[in-house]
Amino acid sequence: AIGASTGGPSTIVELLKHFRRPFPVPIVVILHIDAPFAPGFASWVQEQTRFETIVVRRLTQLKPGVVYVAPGGDDNLVCGSMNSVRPEPASLDELHVPNIDVLFRSLVRHHAEATCGIVLTGMGKDGAGGAKNIQEVGGLVIAQDPNSAIVPSMPQALIDAGATHHGCSLQTIGALAQAWAERLSRQAGIS
Fold first, then answer.
1. Residue 32 catalytic?
2. Residue 98 burial (CB < 10 Å; 0-12/13-18/19+)?
3. Residue 133 contacts residue 104 (beta carbons within 8 Å)
4. pLDDT-derived band at 95, boundaries 50, 70, 90
5. Where does residue 96 rank: exposed (0-12), middle (13-18), buried (19+ CB within 10 A)?
6. 176 and 152 in contact (C-beta within 8 Å)?
7. Selected catalytic residue, list 101, 111, 126, 153
8. Residue 138: what are its φ and ψ, rounded to 5°?
9. pLDDT (tens digit per residue) in 50-89
């Protein structure tokens, strides 16, 4: 799962270019974006990376190597049982919607240590709480190096929360996520 905000679109695309295809697990993306811009963002991601990219508008079964994008606007994206993801109305107290913490926590509930949470550039601290939950159950948490982020607040919040020790370059994040995904798919007998 990848979360980003300000500066996120180009950073997400750059990160995905470091993933080899076919990527062995699904990729779920939360970008703080308004609903009218989500389809254009998804099309642009697909065009730039050649990963099939889908805006999630209803309960959707996850498939390896496909990028699933939150619909934006007033809906969060949550992971359910049986490798599914769906939009869910945000609560009134959520500052950022779609919310990275909500997705990360739903992944922990259903997939525990088989979760990788990546937080990239953005303002605020969305993702830090959910990343800490991922780290506590033994999942993989990776933050972008705050010095390389367009806005360093979100990746720095992960480091400050103790969810990860330091930030990484996009190339290193890509290599770590690729190795993790390949190991997970071997353990699950997916490949």
1. yes
2. buried
3. yes
4. confident
5. buried
6. no
7. 126
8. 95, 10
9. 999 999 999 999 999 999 999 988 999 999 888 999 999 9
Q: What is the pLDDT of residues 9-47, one digit of tens each?
A: 999 999 999 999 999 999 999 999 999 999 999 999 999
Active-site annotation holder among 32, 101, 111, 153: 32
Residue 52 · residue 44 · CB < 8 Å: no
Beta strands in the chain (DSSP E): 2-4, 27-31, 53-55, 60-61, 67-69, 75-80, 84-89, 116-119, 140-144, 167-168
> For residue 190, is pLDDT > 70?
no
CA nearest neighbour of 126 among 108, 104, 106: 104
What gap in Å lies between CA 44 and CA 50, rounded to an integer?
Answer: 10
Burial 117-130 (b: 16+ CB within 10 A, else e): bbbbbbebbbbbbb
pLDDT given for residue 191 in this prediction: 43
pTM of the entire structure?
0.95
126 is catalytic: yes
Q: What is the DSSP letter of 62?
A: -
